[in-house]
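WARN retry 2 of 3 for item q-0093 after timeout on previous attempt; input resubmitted unchanged.
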Amino acid sequence: MKDTKKRSDCPISSSLDIWGDKWSLLIVRDLMFAKECTYGDFLKSDEKIATNILASRLLTLETNGIITKHDHPESKAKVLYKLTEKGVDMLPLMIEINLWADKHFSLPIERKAMLEEVKKDKEAFIRKQKVALLINS
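OK item q-0093 returned
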């Protein structure tokens, strides 16, 4: 894992040094919720990430142990990106961001449906999702 230069010993600041820009969190989001796994899949997201930014963020996330690259089973020209256990550990954070957004924004129906499940039993939802993500990693 890369030694990221820390601005301070604050845990929030140190974490943000690794995944604290919008593009990195959107890549993690896609791997967690949309199961987007190839470079092309990330480029197709609604946010329209530029290729140079995508390449940079994927490298940073990989270098810091959040994601890994794997051979694509159907194409030698493609690479699959998957979350590591360290990346999967971001799930509670991503759930909290979604809950905050649900309170303050209008969300798509499919996301609201997921959050209804979360609200029934957040800890059980997180455990179940973590297991599913780790099995696929």
